[in-house]
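User: I'm curious whether this sequence folds into something compact or stays loose and floppy. Could you predict its structure so I can see for myself?
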Amino acid sequence: MGAPRKLPIGIQAFEKLREEGYVYVDKTALINTLSHTSTRYFLSRPRRFGKSLFLSTLKSYFEGRKDLFEGLAISESETEWKKYPVLYFDFTGKSYAGVGDLIAKVDDTLSEFEGMYGRNTASKDIAIRFKNLIKAAYDKTGNQVVVLVDEYDKPLLQNATNKKREDEIRAVLKGFYGNLKSEDQYIRFMFITGVTRFDKVSIFSDLNNLRDISLSKDFCAVCGITQEELDSCFIPEIEKLSEDNGITKEACIAKLKNNYDGYHFSEDIKTDVYNPFSLLNAFADSSFGSYWFATGTPTFLTQMIRESNFNYESLENDIDVGRRTIENYRLDSRNVLPMLYQTGYITIKNYERELDCFTLGLPNNEVRYGLYENLVPLYAGYEGKTDEIEVLTFIKELRDGKVEAFMQRINTIFASAPKQTNQKQYELNCQAFVWLIFKLMGEFVLCEVQNGKGRSDAVVWQKDTIYIFEFKMDGSAKEAIAQINNQNYPIAYQNDGRKIIKIGVNYSSTEKQLTEWIIE
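Assistant: Here's the prediction. I'll summarize afterward.
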């Protein structure tokens, strides 16, 4: 096996990627389609899906950099390689504490381009300067302008929990982007990306010629890596990953699929898309790790989940929604589903054409367990302190038969969680915490299991033991044990051969903790 190839982890500049010999999954055939079928586009994709690299590729193409595209699909069809003035606005890589940071960022970019094409206004207003810049670039080069905007919504999302600041930023962006319609005659091509697909009335109200390809079947794989691309472009990496982990190539591909695949961005659910960031990191580390969540979960999203009382348990069974739910979104919405979809925590699992209805669900195991792991501190009152709740400890305690220690650990967290005035919400939080702990035990646990004549709250499988849990709220542990026995929950496992341990638990809503448990 040869030396490892250079994988473009964190590489967002197409020029650097091509000149320095990084592995590249060829998306250039789509550029040819985009540039010749329409001229105004918007694309929404979750973070870390390659939007910035695709925009950089567009930039190199419209700058006429033929040398960078040798051997790629577009080199077989493009003959002109005309050079256009490209105005590239990148909103990534900066923190936006308010409208001042946004204006400073745009001012810096405008100044750079004004140095290239001239500034014919004394106004400091960024909207007026942008309008004049477009005309100046056209006048100086004799060619129409290409406008590329990366992560347009980052300033909005970073201020989503502050309505006043968010409205101020929205107003600035609306005026800024309004020039893209008024100066249309000078624009050859436009491509705007973001995580969220905000209601067009809010920001892009003037851009009624903007084509949203976020749900387009033709462009569902414009970002990310398809199964076909994985199989054809990463053979050496798959072979090394399987060898290093002592598994077959087929088992390796199956594990990659379970961990990082499963995204769909159109009605065509036949085209699965892998998260490229996680996939490339798995190859680089030669390990099936969790990478996407290492980049952080947005604060506004966890706040929305908490305030909306979203039933995340429903994600295990998938959720049916109409098209409008995933096409339109407003930050003040009480429905968290659109944002979970747009930010990549859930994806399209099925589409029913007759009803124009989408089924949404968790895409893969990396997202499933990453999401649950981020929710545990939220419901336990440990927000921002994920390292204080180590799920692996819970698994080891049950594996070693330390049921008492397992229950004491859960009770300690309950007792230390901040008390709330809303009694019902506190009870829901406690129930959510227990459910999440069990779900994070992964393949060893099933929640709400049909056994005997009823449903047990949780069943945990270990090498030599099967644990059956039943929880009561303001009842007694004795009642919980009686329910396990009366409903004959153990009958489903009587031929398994492993020891069966029944655990009845009572939670007191007044004392805010587990008051008793019985282990049989």
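Summary: The mean pLDDT is 86. DSSP finds 20 helices and 15 strands in the chain.
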